[in-house]
Every structure is written in structure tokens, then in C-alpha cells.
Amino acid sequence: MATTTTATAAAAIKTVFSTSTIEWAMWANEHVLLTGYVLGIFSILTIIFRFPLWQIAIYGLLLALFIIIIEYPRSGRIVKKSKARPLQKYPSLLLTKLGPLTRNYFIRFVVYILLSLPCLFLISTIAPAISLIIGAGAYGLAALFQEQWIPVEPKTTDNTVPMPTRPPPREPLYRAPSNA
Q1: Torsion-angle region of residue 75: left (phi > 0), alpha (psi -120 to 50) or beta?
Q2: What is the annotated localization of this protein (predicted)?
């Protein structure tokens, strides 16, 4: 009896939602990466101008660096048409080594919401914090549709057409006058 209950619970967990035609993780990755850049810029400006509570901006800068490192590598898509970013293989190795902590989008959903909370107390970082919460919501949707991070596989074969060795035939530019 206990094994059937466990099997039923596992089947219920596996089928949270059926697959979606939208790859939410792709949109969340782009959104959160851009949020990391904006949070970093706003935090640097807050530190330079010594706004009130500028110590939170130091946290925001460290959070922005963490976000950029985690979000820089693109995930492989279902349709296998993802193109890797330049120098993506180095942070991608880090994400692969960390395993389920970075592969699971539900963990990213929870972590990004919790990490964005201190930034809500500083006026210059409130917009990136709200944007990070929105990106975390997109990761939550990706988790509901059972998406997970997979590294982009390098292309093994090149399907391009080789360059021609001789030019195509063309009509002559000048026609010889006919003596008719």
C-alpha cells in the first residue's frame, strides 16, 4: 500500500503541468541577466555618490556579480537551436559542477526572490529588485513546466555549403556588332 501511495505521489509531482510551447527559462535567463547588469550599474552609482543606506548597494553589487556569473551561460533549448555566448564554457563548467543547485529552476526562483529583498529598501536599487522578482517568477513558470538547465552542446558538424571553386557562367558584357 505504501509503495502505491509513493508511486502516485511521484507521478503527481512529475506532472505538475504539461509541456509548454514557450520556453520560460530562456526568457527568464535573458531578463535576469539584464537585471544583473542594471543592478550592478545602479549599485556602483549609489556607492560613488554615497546615497543614504549606500551599504545596501555594496550588497547589490555583490548580488549583481553573482547573478551575472550564474546567468551568463545560456541553457540548451528543447529545439537544439541555442547559440552559446562568447566565453560561456567557463561559467557553464561551474554550473555543471554545482549540479542540482543551479540546474533546478525552482531553486533559482526561491533564491532570487530571497536575495532581492534587501535591495527593496534602497530607492536606487528598487527597480532592479522588482525586475529580479519578475525574472524569478518566470523561473517559477519554467519550474512548473519541468524545464531545467542543460549546457549548450557545441555543434559537431558544419552543414554549410562549401564555397564554389569557379564563378558561375555569365552573359558577356558587350556583344559584338553583327554585320547583317
Answers
A1: beta
A2: Cell membrane
Q: What is the pLDDT of residue 22?
A: 77
Look at residues 68, 66, 61 and name the one whose alpha carbon lies nearest to residue 47.
61
Q: What is the three-class DSSP state of 121?
A: helix
Which H or E run contains 69?
Answer: helix 54-71
Residue type, 39: L
Using CA atoms in the order 131, 48, 111, 135, what is the torsion angle rounded to 10 degrees?
Answer: 20
Question: By C-alpha distance, which of 125, 115, 130 is closest to 47?
Answer: 125
pTM: 0.73
Q: Distance (Å, rounded) from C-alpha 41 to C-alpha 36?
A: 9
Q: How many CA atoms lie within 13 A of 54 on its CB side?
A: 9
Q: Which residue has the higher pLDDT, 160 or 97?
A: 97
Quote the cell numbers at residue 99: 549540479
Give mean pLDDT, residues 9-24. Answer: 59
User: Measured in whole angstroms, how far is the alpha carbon of residue 43 from the centre of its chain?
Assistant: 22
Q: What is the mean pLDDT of residues 75-95?
A: 78
pLDDT at 12: 45
